[in-house]
Automatic annotation (TrEMBL):
The keyword Iron belongs to this UniProt entry's keyword annotation: no
GO BP of this protein: negative regulation of cell growth
Database matches in SUPFAM superfamilies: RING/U-box
Transmembrane helix listed as a keyword: no
PANTHER family in alphabetical order: CELL GROWTH REGULATOR WITH RING FINGER DOMAIN PROTEIN 1
Domain RING-type: residue ranges: 232-267
Coiled-coil annotated spans: none
Superkingdom of the source species: Eukaryota
UniProt-recorded name of the protein: RING-type domain-containing protein
Protein source organism: Adineta steineri
PROSITE patterns assigned: ZF_RING_2
Entry-linked Pfam families: zf-C3HC4_3 (PF13920)
Keywords from the named record: Metal-binding, Zinc, Zinc-finger
Gene3D superfamilies referenced in this protein's UniProt entry, alphabetically: Zinc/RING finger domain, C3HC4 (zinc finger)
Length: 276
């Protein structure tokens, strides 16, 4: 799978769209939705004159993780969807101290601490490890039976991440891949039995590269429910070449891009873009 890197950052996930890809943030840039909702209607504005072109790089990812939000809770467990092209390992850490998490994540010793099973050892309540020794698609249920009780008794202020997931190549006697391939790290909010608690969702997804950089993963979306994922949503013939921001729809070709000032899928004004 190809992962794309760029500079936008958003919290929201578009559940109704059929398919999602990933892009990565080097520097997080905040966008205020009110800035776009209050814009006056504009006519005959071409995108190349008004939107910023975000430069991008590409990296390969051998594994990706997603969650089944609707049926994942502290009580029933969290359902993880994993796609992997290599032998890999999934680690789950329950109720992780947030400050200690970032300190260990940013440490130069990060990979060695994973290799030696020291990562978050003293800064989580419970942990599990799952090995996937063949490539393919998996659904893995992760459960901490005492999660609800722990939350009620110890974590009402939410100073801890309910769940942290880490995916990396399988550690063997020859662990060259482990020290070379990106490691995916995800923090999750997990829905409790409290009626007002929001649904389970990713808080943050990070790819840790071999050189120590941390790149923040975000979704980009294609309008696959309406037509072919790879064709422009305007002309329906040419391949998609542009991802529009801040909505993150990958939906227009190079020619049609110069004719629009709003996303053809969601009708949100385009303020920046990158090419794929």
């Amino acid at each position: 799978m190809i992962i794309i890197t760029q500079d936008d950052h958003s919290d929201h996930r578009k559940r109704r769209l059929k398919r999602s890809l990933f892009y990565i943030v080097y520097v997080s840039v905040a966008f205020d939705q009110d800035d776009y909702e209050n814009l006056d209607e504009r006519i005959n504005i071409t995108i190349p004159q008004s939107a910023q072109n975000i430069p991008v790089d590409r990296i390969d990812s051998s594994y990706t993780i997603n969650i089944e939000e609707n049926r994942s809770t502290l009580k029933d467990g969290v359902y993880i969807r994993l796609h992997t092209d290599i032998h890999c390992q999934l680690r789950a850490f329950w109720f992780v101290n947030i400050q200690r998490f970032y300190k260990e994540l940013d440490s130069r010793d990060f990979r060695l601490s994973l290799y030696d099973n020291r990562f978050l050892k003293d800064n989580c309540v419970h942990q599990e490890t799952f090995n996937f020794e063949t490539s393919g698609d998996y659904v893995q249920r992760i459960e901490f039976s005492d999660a609800e009780n722990y939350l009620i008794n110890n974590n009402e202020t939410r100073r801890e991440y309910p769940l942290v997931l880490i995916v990396h190549s399988l550690i063997t006697e020859n662990s060259e891949e482990f020290f070379q391939l990106p490691i995916q790290v995800a923090t999750l909010h997990v829905k409790s039995s409290i009626p007002t608690d929001p649904p389970t969702k990713f808080i943050l997804r990070i790819s840790k590269l071999a050189d120590g950089r941390s790149l923040v993963l975000q979704d980009i979306f294609t309008p696959g429910a309406f037509h072919s994922d790879n064709t422009c949503a305007v002309c329906l013939t040419e391949p998609v070449t542009h991802v529009l921001l801040p909505c993150k729809h990958a939906c227009v070709c190079r020619n049609c891009f110069s004719l629009i000032d709003k996303c053809p899928v969601c009708q949100r004004f385009v303020t920046s873009y990158f090419q794929i």
